[in-house]
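Sat 14:20. Reprocessing the chain from the morning session after the first attempt stalled halfway. Input below, unchanged.
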Amino acid sequence: MGEIPGTCKGLVQDQMRILGVNCMNHDAAMAVVEFEDNKAPGKILWAAHSERYSKIKNDHYLNWDIVNEAVSYVPIDKVVYYEKPILKKTRQFYATQFRTAFDSKEMPAHHMKKFGLRIDEYVKHHASHAAAGYFTSGFKDAVILTVDAIGEWETISISKGYNQKAIHHMESQQYPHSIGILYSAFTQRCGLKPAEEEYILMGMSAYGRPIYKDDIYKDFVTRNPFRLKRNLHKGIGNWKPNADVMDLAASVQAVTEECLTDLWIRASKYAGFGNKNLVYAGGVALNCAANRTLANLGLFENIWIIPNPGDAGSSIGCIAASESKQIDWQHPFLGHNIEGEYPVDAIIKELKENKMVGVANGRAEFGPRALGNRSLLADPRGKEIKDLVNAIKKRQKFRPFAPAILEEDVNEYFDLPTGVKNTPYMQYTAACTHGKDFPAIIHYDNTSRVQTVRKTDNPGFHALLTEWKKQTGCPILLNTSLNIKGQPIVNDRADAEAFTKKYGVKVC
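Finished this time. Tokens:
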């Protein structure tokens, strides 16, 4: 058992609490899941990103604040880690990352020892991704497609989930052949931070023309099966030095979507009779523009993307993989709690007076997107609002904002992708049918990264949207994360107070 200060033995017979950990890689996170017996699904007690506590964006490491909150859920009976470090070391050696490969301090056991934690079990990276998706999906059977930059060696994997009890691996692609690495290489080429600002590259793609698509295939990519013609782990240098970065973004987005289309078609062939369920996992699943294209293929009737499909979500996934048990997914509000009733009246008052307001209430979202509890909200109807919010957040002017809308109203204002009935976690873009009325939430291509809001998921945010619509006739609010570019999302009350003081935006 993990050596955790204050741990006591056992809850009651058949009960177990497991701590899942992702660290020493992109976006460290921790999660605690409780299993009451052998039949009941596990319950997520808490899950959070390390960066929210350390205030270091995409923090790779744990810190005492997040560890202390994790171990407050004692007793912890087992500690599970989301990756197999020895396998990762062999890949680092192959990639000539010798300093990291031979550094014993760059081992999770060494890092966690300083917090009094001992790892009881290691789970493979892609197994953690797949399990995070499948065992929270609620699907009895499903095809599971995992696509990311890299695990230990795997970059693409296809699996099948059976009866919420087992995952069988079917096939995989190995490093250095990686769609995620391809996209990150172009992220760097366009002057952005690789493994961090890919979402900005995605937003840029709407402004460009995919005129370099054929050149990307010629120089870097083959299809069916996907392969890279050379290792792009260290980037592509100044490829096409005179190219407009918007055109480069559009080109790699187009290539990415075509290669992902091949993979979705390939995955669909593993679906048995009557099985039209897809679980889509890994960091590439955060590309909501590609997700729209893929959903419109109509290959699957039901698609589940956990709202934290990247490495952070694997803190839940490694637990699910270890136990091979269903985990009851209810909502993503799993992090640090700010107590108090959702301040509907105060928010509306501030929106009417100043067009913008911050919200820090309830439990923080587990994932990269604010969904109403750590959000910066604004009236989407003014042309000046987009520039105003971008100025506050210190973001590039071209970047779009997301709309939050009641689930029951979404089809009146947005054309959701084929088979997508709702999108509570901003996982798909959709064309807005009333774009002229809401200029602040419309991207250059007339799409929006939509969030549909259900009362069962977030009663407070649902009540706010209902009252806002009643008082103003506007069914939509602009919703973006309560942070400044390059900084983590607000976590606790002290963060909220500091945000108000520094940026002059009231946080309710």
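Confidence is low (pLDDT under 50) at residues 5-11.
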